[in-house]
Design brief:
By secondary structure, the chain is of the alpha+beta class. 41% of the residues lie in helices and 24% in strands.
Length: 144
């Protein structure tokens, strides 16, 4: 079952590095959230269940040992487990904020079974690229 993470939400990060999670998603993250670097300079936020599924699928993939080490370093070394506070915010650790270039304006974007947290300017660039390519991607799926 896919989780209903969709839409985009604009926020500002506070002085303590906290970002609000959209109210409609908070219940799904009540047991905790895992934050990790995303591939396009964003932060990926997983529910604990989705994180475990993703971690299991990655570690059971047939990769050479060197590729598995690199994958593990990239995905797990900078992963942080955290909780949503009483005001519905999640504290983003400094290394992840630096990686994603998050200083002020933030976009929380739904991505089906996880959330992405973006620097607003980088999100606008990525959104434009994605919108330009989406139909080509859909059409390539239809041919499969």
């Amino acid at each position: 079952m896919a989780l209903p993470f969709f839409g985009e939400y604009d926020y500002k990060i506070d002085e303590k590095g906290r970002v609000p999670i959209p109210p409609r998603f908070r219940n799904y993250l009540r047991d905790g959230v895992v934050l990790t670097p995303g591939p396009e300079k964003c932060i990926t936020a997983y529910t604990l269940t989705e994180w475990k599924k993703m971690a299991t699928s990655l570690t059971s993939t047939a990769l050479t040992r060197s590729k598995m080490r690199r994958l593990s370093r990239a995905m797990f070394a900078m992963a942080f487990s955290t909780r949503i506070d009483n005001q519905g915010r999640v504290a983003i650790p400094a290394p992840l904020r630096e990686y994603a270039q998050i200083v002020d304006e933030v976009v929380v974007a739904g991505a089906n079974n996880y959330l992405e947290i973006w620097n607003k300017a980088l999100w606008e660039e990525e959104k434009d690229i994605s919108q330009q390519q989406v139909w080509q991607i859909i059409e390539s799926l239809e041919k499969s």
